[in-house]
Amino acid sequence: MSLASLKSKFNALLANINGSTTINFATTVETGYEALALARIMQEYKTVYGTISNFTHPTNNKFLNQKPGKFRIDRSFKIDFRSGDSFYFAADIEVFGLEAFNHNNPVGILFEVDIVVIPSVHANEVINTFKGYPAPQHIHSAYECKYGSYNKGQLRELLGLKRHLCYLNNSAITSSTLFSTKILKSNPPIVLNMVRPRQQIFFDFATAQLYDLEQIIVN
């Protein structure tokens, strides 16, 4: 896919979500694919949560941070639903892990995540208490975008992120309506998916099943 085609698809998804488009876009195919994935994820939230009451674009002209960084409202999309649910959609965010979850404080190491969805109710705490870095208790879903060829290291990377955010809990049985994701063993039950332009088979399918690792296709 070219950068122009990615922008066209991105704007088509935005128009489908709320009848709007954007002038600003990515400068590389890889970040353009990340933007397309972000729009597809917002569309999925609309499918699950229903009618949108308000859709807010980033006020900063770079909604992709282009590098790991802090959650910023001015670089995030926000969707408010008539149901009362409300979420921020942000790209290229570093997140705290289970140590911050256990202590409810900004402690421990940070991992980069390509796309993070944060319930709006947590935004102030993330910014003011956690120095702009979400912890597992603030994250509704997270996504790693892989545009190029697939390799075994990507599964290891996704597994490392999953273990950074969630405990393995054999008694946790739930399922998310987002992308029909099954969450059978993860506590907290954060949806974590790998986003690719085409279907691929995990090299280690048993590991993927054990840790609730799944993929979604955006093309």
List the keywords.
219 residues, alpha+beta, two-stranded antiparallel ribbon, 6 helices, globular
Please, could you describe this protein's structure?
The chain has 219 residues and is an alpha+beta fold. It has one domain. The chain is built from six helices and eleven strands. The N and C termini lie close together (9 Å).
Beta-strand proportion? 15-25%
Helix content class = 25-40%
Structural class: alpha+beta
> What is the number of beta strands?
11
Summarize model confidence as the mean pLDDT: 89
Q: Give the low-pLDDT segments.
A: none
H/I helix tally? 6
Order of helices and strands: HHEEEHEHEHEEEEEHE
Q: Return Rg in Å.
A: 16 Å
Distance between the termini: 9 Å
Largest beta-sheet characterization:
7 strands, mixed
Strand order of the largest sheet: 1-2-3-4-5-10-11
SSE layout:
Elements: H1 3-18, H2 29-49, E1 52-56, E2 77-81, E3 86-96, H3 98-103, E4 110-119, H4 123-128, E5 141-145, H5 152-165, E6 167-168, E7 174-175, E8 182-183, E9 186-187, E10 191-196, H6 205-210, E11 214-217
Parallel strand pairs: 5-10, 10-11
Antiparallel strand pairs: 1-2, 2-3, 3-4, 4-5, 6-9, 7-8
